[in-house]
Write a structure and sequence with these properties.
With 79 residues, this protein is of the alpha+beta class. The protein contains 3 helices and 4 strands; from the N terminus they run βαβαββα. The chain has a single domain, classed as 3-Layer(aba) Sandwich (Glutaredoxin), CATH 3.40.30. Helix content is 38%, strand content 22%. The chain has a 4-stranded mixed sheet, covered by helices on one side. β3 and β4 form a beta hairpin.
Length: 79
């Protein structure tokens, strides 16, 4: 599977929900977490939208809210 990036912020309950969903879908080891607060450009781009899952190969993004079906559809579309 290609690299997935989860953009998040610390102490974000929605980010925690997204991570739990990804773990339940068997993706616990399949993504990299990036704290948007460590990069001003990322903070400007994703600040009010986190969590955001991004496929690094084709730059497609899945914005919250998403559920297991939405996650599966996103993964099917990008692989």
């Amino acid at each position: 599977m290609s690299q997935l990036i989860l953009y998040y912020q610390p102490d974000c309950h929605l980010c925690d929900e997204a991570e739990a969903l990804m773990t339940a879908a068997g993706l616990a080891e399949s993504y990299q977490k990036v704290d948007i607060e460590s990069d001003l450009e990322l903070l400007k781009r994703y600040g009010i939208h986190v969590p955001v899952l991004k496929h690094s190969d084709n730059e497609q993004e899945l914005f919250w809210p998403f559920d297991r079906a939405g996650l599966a559809a996103f993964l099917a579309a990008v692989t």
